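The protein record quoted in full:

***
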Amino acid sequence: MAVLAVFIPVVMLGVLLALGRYEELLLPVPKETEEPRTAGPAPAG
């Protein structure tokens, strides 16, 4: 039982880290290659 008490949290941490890596691969962050956006519309006239 003591072995399970040690290994279960370690295994759960490994699964959590693996799911985080899988999420990064599944949903990649878009690159910031767009031009910076201005605060508002261009002044008229």
